[in-house]
Amino acid sequence: MSDIVISAKDVTRTFMISAGAFRGKKPLHAVNGISLEVERGDVLALVGESGCGKTTLAKMLLGLLPPSQGTIKFGGEPVSDIDRLKLAGLVQPIFQDPYSSLNPRKSIGSIITLPLRVQGDPNPETWRRRGEEMMEMVGLPARLFNNFPNQLSGGQRQRVAIARALINNPEVVICDEPTSALDVSVQSQILNLLQDLRKELNLTYIVISHNLAVVEHIATKVAVMYLGRIVEQKDVESLFAAPEHPYTRALLDSVLTPDPSMGVPDTQLGAAYPNPVNPPSGCTFHPRCAKVMDHCSAVAPKAIPRDGDFAECHLYDENEGKGRQAS
Amino acid sequence: MSDRILEVENLTVDIPVGGGMLHAVQGISFHVDRGETLCIVGESGCGKSLTSLAVMDLLPSKAFRGANVLNLADEDMLSAGERRMSDIRGNTMGMIFQEPMTSLNPAYTIGNQMEEGIKRHKNVSTAEARERAIYLLEKVGITGAASRLSQYPHQLSGGLRQRVMIAMTLMCGPNLIIADEPTTALDVTIQAQILLLLAELQREFDMGLILITHDLGVVARIADRVAVMYAGQIVEQGTAEQVFNRPTHPYTQGLLECIPIPGKTDRSKPLGSIPGIVPSLIGKFSACHFAERCPYAMDECVAENIDMQGAAEAGHEYRCLLDNETCDANARKKGVA
Fold first, then answer.
1. Do A116 and A126 touch, CB atoms closer than 8 A?
2. Less packed terminus of chain B by CB within 10 Å, N or C?
């Protein structure tokens, strides 16, 4: 039985970018036709280089940005039809930098209980107790209730952000690089906390990260994004065991595990990330691809089903010959 | 001995702050040989960046630097005056900073900024400086080098800017490069490229390289020798192979436990973690800075003065009261050895 919590169908988001003072605007397809489905209890990781549209996609899933085309559904209902307040109670974000995502002039207690006030929770007398319970759950001492963010360390601040996200019992939490601003020893504390909370509260996570070692540890499914498209989507085990898209392979190669017997990997990703305003023709990855073929620059690949999921690459297209003639 | 490029003994950095004296770096000693990569690794606030600034004599004016020995290629930098130091900086010793976005001047062209240093330090004509800039830009893998010289930093991507920074550091042919988190602001794929480039250039020009980072993955792949810093002290030092395969200090062991390794770490179990936070370095503190967070802390840890002691192999030392066998047994128990 599949229980789809959040789904996107052919979602596109286009920004109009100024090309210069006297020139017209150019479209930038930050997210270009993405479809995905997240089941309850899953941890979907979105990975990819900066500028590939991860954060734009997350903002659309949060309802902060409307998609230019396509629909995002939450529990079967289009997000655009759901009341903003109600949606905020169902989907909550945890941002990257806990130094800038907490209001420095509000106390910890007031930051954590703000969602209750915003939602007009009917029992104001319980807010403080619930805030303190939440703090205990994320491993913050209740005595910090009246302190301010500048008195807290980075790890503690991220715990505050987590407590704020969870106080209204959301169904989905979208974590945008939840640990990349933190030190290694604190990162593992936060990852363990996120894992524990997921089991305890039956949460669904969408995690955005560029740290593939972290992704491998917490995700159940991974979607690899490149220039606004998901180029490969798979279960985490099979993605790490047998990456199929050449880009996924290059990304996995660039993970630096602490193994002194290995040197620095050569990812073969020669050219720099392309300009998204002017993407390459055909398969957008072809200028950097180690396995590029003749027709890659002409024909954009379609999603090829691979073991239940998909990879968008001509390498796996069985009808490749036919496709070439047809084009 | 001319192979030794940098020799540092008992370096301290003290900064007066509101609540007293902040002992940011507390008597650390290390050395770098020609063609060698020393990685200084530690969490934020452990003093690794201040160490590099102290070596360059670029500390903020209110900070105090002290050392017994600070030699760059047999020259005593402690007695060198400001004028001599500015001859050394950018000439025999170069620095690559973390943020390629902010360390280049947005108001000058790439060429202007690259040629500035060499014209200051060496007696070269503009044409020669330009030629060298083009040569080095090609060396660091930038295409169309000649046309890049007239571009401004905002016209380049982050990876390209960091390449420009590296080329700029190489302009005067330095003996020593200090790279402070050179890849932290970059994507993982670009990070691998930049590290590969640094390693290649270092071999080619036979320089010493000090790489400062918090990323243990980077360290393991590129370092010859590793110094692990914690709260202003070096707690473990040795070759990369020694530190990563036979970590002795409880802090190093804890750090290695914290990192998830694809295919190796058990996904169903929680990651290892180090409880607590880095102690404040203001005023006085106990002998072992890690004692509060250490799973093996004893009463003696807070009382006695703790010196570096040698591990089983030569060149591998650590700052802990536990003897070597106990440490090795702990490492095996934790599964990090």
1. no
2. N
> Do the chains contact at A210 and B274, CB–CB below 8 Å?
no
Q: Find, in chain B, the residue whose alpha carbon is nearest to that of A258.
A: B217
The per-residue pLDDT for range A101-147, each reduced to its tens digit, is 899 999 999 999 999 999 888 888 899 999 999 999 998 998 999 99
Q: CB count, 10 Å around CB of A320?
A: 16
Query: What CATH code is carried by the domain that includes residue B202?
Result: 3.40.50.300
Q: Do B157 and A272 touch (CB under 8 A)?
A: yes
Please report, for the domain that includes residue A97, its CATH number. Answer: 3.40.50.300
The count of domains in chain A is 1
Question: Cα distance from B174 to chain A (closest Cα, Å)?
Answer: 23
Round to whole Å and give the CA distance between B222 and B236: 18
Query: Is residue B228 domain-resident?
Result: no
Residue A312 has pLDDT above 80, yes or no: yes
Q: Are residues B188 and B307 in the same domain?
A: no
End-to-end CA distance of chain B: 35
Chain B residues with CB inside 8 Å of A213's CB? 217, 259-262
Q: Is residue B76 exposed (0-12), middle (13-18) or buried (19+ Cβ within 10 Å)? A: exposed
ipTM for the whole complex: 0.82
pLDDT band at A12 (very low <50, low <70, confident <90, very high): very high
**Residue numbers of the domain that contains B248:** 233-334
Q: Does the structure show a pLDDT above 50 at A324? A: no
Q: Do A258 and B189 touch (CB under 8 A)?
A: no
3-state secondary structure of A253: helix
**Domains contained in chain B, number:** 2
CA distance A153 to B278: 10
Is position B95 within any domain? yes
Q: What is the pLDDT of residues B165-219, one digit of tens each?
A: 999 999 998 999 999 988 887 788 888 888 988 998 999 889 999 999 988 989 9
Tell me the residue type at B187: D
Same domain, B293 and B180: no
Residue A319 belongs to domain spanning: 4-326
- The reply to whether B148 and B101 lie within a common domain is yes
Whose tokens are 């093996």? That residue is B296
Q: d(Cα A17, Cα A277) in Å, to the nearest integer?
A: 8
Query: Could you tell me the two tokens for A313?
Result: 């690459």
What does the alpha-carbon distance between residue B254 and residue A276 come to, in Å, rounded to a whole number? 42
pLDDT on residue B125: 93
Q: How far does the CA of residue A213 sit from the closest CA of chain B (Å)? A: 6
Residue A174: phi and psi, rounded to 5, are -105, 115
Say yes or no: B260 and B215 in one domain: no
Closest chain B C-alpha to A307 CA, distance in angstroms: 20
